[in-house]
Specification:
21 helices, 12 strands
Length: about 650
């Protein structure tokens, strides 16, 4: 870490850009660098608080988020075209061979490789906490809240670094400039100590935070007690998970003085502790009206939507709905999700698509996660023709709200669960939206076979060469036609209620095995889109009916439920790591359809674009070689 300065503060030169909140647009005056000025009154101190928020808000950029970058659910043009100027480099990480210790990609420790330094952010939080007593016009109730917000942000930045690097140096306070050199070169703290410190900060912060925002026009995006408790639940789940809880791969991981950085034995009691934190967060959230989203039909859309479309929108709009209408949203950033245009298909003849647009795709393997309409995996359903899933099939009237009637696609797209149709665009798939909402046979659809088809790829730099679109991340109110592209912007959730329900179910199962409570929270999430309960679905339709009745079997179901429900929300890259399932999943071939072909048989041949190259070292980020030279008390992460 860089030596800190309490005299000249680079943070004061930052422009704070938290869109949607006018007060966050204030800019600290140029060429002013003293703490006395920064905390001379309430107004200036508040500006400094917002600089503490500013680093967090940069997570709105998907391609620079490490969990999107490693989730393997989205692929970008340069990954298969060799183009480096179409998008930022972050999402290349999934294919391996890019990460290195000399110049790490997404280096949140130092602040390089398309990432800010989270240690700089922590220092700004410490500076705020150490000087917040100075403004004489700051009311006690405001000071209490601001201190709580700074403690939350400090906890969040520590936790984020721990997720990436494991054991990290805890920065409890800023080191004076006059401190001996040795004090500016800390060693790493054991990972359990880091988690305990983060939880301590969150507990302290929760007491001073409002339960919810009372003035949304001015304060949406600021931290609440519900958010603090939800993050605490995530922290304790991380600590209990196999990556950190007695991981034998890190048994010999020690500081230079020989002190161990990982516990050598798993502690199953951590799951019970995490379960209590999840339940506390859920109870508080529900007490203020949060819960699972159900679709709110706008005035300009026919009220008599089919049950099929309502179920789809119950799930799809839970991601893209505005804050004021989305009771499922626990926490989101102020910045809007800015990648819709790169994901949106051509749905009408003559739609103008520019270079880089319509290019972000999903690899085929991700679609295989999703269940049949019976709520079980496609290779377990005893009524679904898995062996012949790539044979041709034609859309009919009974499926007209998901597959275009009379259009030839393949059986793999038939009789899937609603979340499949809400999450992916595919050749022959209906696209509810793009200003066409009348379900009487006139809904738009993707038609992707060959370059001359409406959604086809005439130019690989402005087309989806995988043939699978991330529909879930495209707001159904966004319009792309022959004359213009008009985005209906939204804020991608960081935490939503379904996420908390599934975390709670996971903790309960890991602590004590299957129970009615575990089934209840899993079934609650599934019911929104019309799926039956776990036990009923497996009993009736699975060739492995006893799977939900054992701890190991239910664990597999829970992990899959999280990957389905939270697909493309930046969760998989982290979940797969903490479960220690990352290498198994992320090294599978990256495949898509042969989109240049015009026939069904030709189009539906899988093309392998590349096979990711990853190893055990990729579970944790490397510390940069330069940082190890600057601070010789640090040790590198294992296997790097």
């Amino acid at each position: 870490m860089k030596k800190n300065s309490t005299i000249i503060l680079a943070a004061l030169m930052l422009s704070v850009s938290l869109a949607g909140c006018k007060k966050y647009l204030d800019i600290v005056p140029q060429n002013v660098g003293t703490l006395d000025y920064a905390f001379r009154n309430r107004s200036e101190a508040e500006k400094y608080l917002f600089t503490c928020y500013n680093t967090l808000q940069q997570r709105s950029n998907m391609v620079n988020d490490p969990w999107f970058a490693t989730g393997g659910e989205l692929v970008l043009p340069q990954e298969y075209l060799g183009q480096t100027n179409l998008t930022a480099p972050g999402l290349q990480l999934v294919k391996g061979g890019v990460q290195n210790k000399d110049n790490p990609v997404l280096n949140y420790w130092d602040g390089s490789g398309s990432a800010p330094s989270y240690y700089d952010a922590i220092r700004r939080c410490n500076t705020f906490l150490e000087n917040v007593d100075k403004p004489i016009d700051l009311q006690p109730f405001e000071k209490e809240r601001w201190i709580a917000e700074a403690k939350f942000l400090k906890a969040y930045y520590h936790f984020f670094l721990a997720k990436m690097y494991g054991p990290i140096p805890i920065v409890r306070g800023n080191t004076p400039v006059t401190a001996p050199t040795g004090e500016t070169r800390p060693q790493r703290d054991p990972v359990d100590s880091v988690f305990s410190y983060v939880v301590q900060l969150l507990d302290e912060a929760a007491e001073g935070l409002p339960i919810q925002i009372d003035n949304p026009d001015q304060e949406l995006g600021r931290i609440t007690r519900v958010i603090a408790l939800a993050l605490k639940a995530e922290v304790l789940v991380a600590q209990a998970s196999p990556l950190f809880n007695g991981n034998p791969d890190y048994a010999g991981f020690k500081n230079k003085d020989g002190s161990p950085l990982f516990s050598s034995t798993p502690n199953n009691a951590l799951w019970a502790k995490a379960a209590l934190a999840c339940k506390e967060a859920i109870d508080l959230a529900e007490s203020v009206g949060l819960g699972l989203y159900t679709y709110i039909i706008p005035p300009n859309i026919p009220a008599n939507l089919s049950d099929s479309l309502v179920k789809e929108m119950n799930f799809r709009a839970a991601i893209t709905e505005t804050w004021d209408k989305n009771k499922e949203l626990v926490w989101a950033l102020n910045g809007t999700f800015g990648w819709q245009q790169q994901m949106f298909p051509k749905l009408v003849s003559g739609a103008v698509v520019t270079r880089g647009q319509n290019t972000i795709a999903c690899p085929f393997s991700v679609t295989d996660l999703f269940y049949t309409r019976n709520g079980v995996p496609i290779d377990e359903d005893n009524t679904w023709d898995y062996a012949n899933r790539f044979t041709a099939a034609t859309g009919d009237a009974s499926r007209q709200h998901y597959i275009k009637q009379g259009y030839e696609t393949i059986k793999n797209n038939f009789d899937r669960e609603v979340r499949y149709y809400a999450s992916f665009g595919f050749d022959g798939g209906i696209w509810f939206g793009n200003a066409v909402y009348t379900p009487a046979g006139s809904l738009l659809s993707i038609q992707g076979k060959g370059a001359s088809s409406i959604s086809g790829v005439s130019n690989a730099e402005s087309g989806n060469v995988f043939g699978i679109w991330p529909k879930k991340l495209c707001n159904y109110l966004t319009v792309n036609n022959t004359t213009s592209y008009t985005a209906s912007n939204y804020r991608l959730p960081l935490i939503r209620m379904a996420d908390l329900y599934l975390l709670y179910a996971e903790c309960l199962n890991e602590a004590n095995g299957p129970s009615e409570d575990v089934y209840h929270y899993l079934d609650l999430v599934r019911a929104r889109t019309g799926l039956k309960g776990i036990v009923e679905s497996w009993t009736k339709y699975s060739n492995n009916p006893g799977k939900p009745l054992t701890k190991d079997g239910l664990r597999q179901i829970i992990h899959r439920e999280r990957r389905i429900e939270l697909c493309m929300e930046g969760k998989a890259g982290w979940d797969l790591r903490r479960w220690k399932e990352y290498l198994e999943v992320a090294t599978r071939p990256i495949q898509g359809w042969t989109v240049s072909q015009t026939t069904t048989a030709g189009y539906y041949q899988l093309t392998t674009f590349y096979v990711p190259s990853l190893s055990i070292k990729d579970y944790l980020w490397p510390i940069s070689a330069n940082e190890l030279l600057v601070n010789q008390n640090l040790v590198q992460n294992p296997y790097w």
